[in-house]
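Technical note accompanying the year-one report. For the benefit of new consortium partners, we illustrate the data format agreed upon in the data management plan: each record pairs a sequence with a structure-token string. No post-processing was applied to the example shown here.
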Amino acid sequence: MTEVPDFVLFLGRFHPLVVHLPIGFLFFAFLLEWFGKHPDRKALKSAVPFALFLGFITALIACVLGYMLSLSGDYEVSMLDSHFYFGVVTTVIVLLAWLIRVDKLKLTVLNTAKSNISLLTLIVVLLSITGHYGGNLTHGSDYLTKYLPFTQKEQKTLPKIAKVEDAVIFDYLAQPIIEEKCISCHNSNKKKGGLSFQDSLSIFKGGKNGKVVVAGNAMESEMIKRVLLDPKHDDFMPPEGKTPLTEDEIFILKYWIDNAHANFSSKVSAVKTSDSMKHIASVFLGFEKMGHNKEVTLPKVSPVETHVLEELMAEGFNFRELVFNSNVYEVVLPNYNMDKGTKDLTLKLQKLANLKSNILWLYIEDNQLTDAHLEIINTFNNLEKLVVNRNQITDKGLKLLENHSNLLSLNIYNNNITDNCLESLMHMHKLQKVYAWQTAITEESLNKYQQEANFPEVILASY
């Protein structure tokens, strides 16, 4: 198959923008014709040919761009064909309607007032059908009817289970995550990247980039690789504008792939399952409540001046205010900003420290972060969530965080961490959860510390 040039696909992505123009012009032409039937408003009809002409030109452009977009191969063929051919037929009929109205095409049977309104009505009907198929392509075939009142809604209900061990891992744990976070872009009608999560066969078939699931090896599975990328990376999933997976959701998917070998019928009781995994599954299924505070009180801090934010954004930081007018932020430093090494990172963090009281969540992943950098981060007094995966942190670095008064969640997977850090974690009195996959922390040592009342929940790679 010939590879489609990127520029063609780039132009094709303007189709959703352009396609609304002919809809507006052609509905406007219909309204002009309809209201122009009254003798006092007859002058309105004089604008119909111009509206039809604009509708034809923009519809033609939309068809061309739509064809370019279809070459991506991301859409189900039969529904795509219906949308495309209805669009072409609509465009041809609009052209005929315009030629008739400007007397370029002489068809006596269609040169009456009733014929004019009938032809425009047909155009509106065709527009609606074409748009309906387009909506199905984008949002799924049940998009229009999903919330239709007074109809019996077909729901897939799973049998109730008495305990977490009875849960089929895929049906009860993995599938709800996939349906919420993945299925809108990867279904039988819309296959972004040629991938569908609609059923087991589609999942194992994979997409353009090969297998999305490698049974028994989560870290080689494209599904897991994509959700663990930097959020600003082009291949990060789900894409910008969609809600990312939580750490627990990623952990569940890894557990299904690694421990259940991506089997669609295995139960929790049938595979090796750690206490941490059982706790996450119990919370997910509603058997246990999360151990977080019921009420979240944001710290009261001074506003940040716009020029300060702009200067830090120029350094590569991304900011998101967590609550409107709260002045507290989630801060992300993408790893592609770090070509100059650890010295460059030190300078960036020193500048970021000017906002230390305003930072609630901080993400610095795969950025050559060292223990010395944690000394700076420890001054961020209101920090509650710290994500520093895939860096160069050691036990000495975590010891620097022992006296941090507000840290609740710590994500340190794939760092040089050993059992020696467990003592430091015990001194972080507010810490509730630690994600420590791919570290040297052992289950045996962890079990000794987990007997302590205030010791945080530590999630290891052993599910």
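Partners are asked to follow this layout when depositing records. The CA atoms of residues 426 and 449 lie 8 Å apart.
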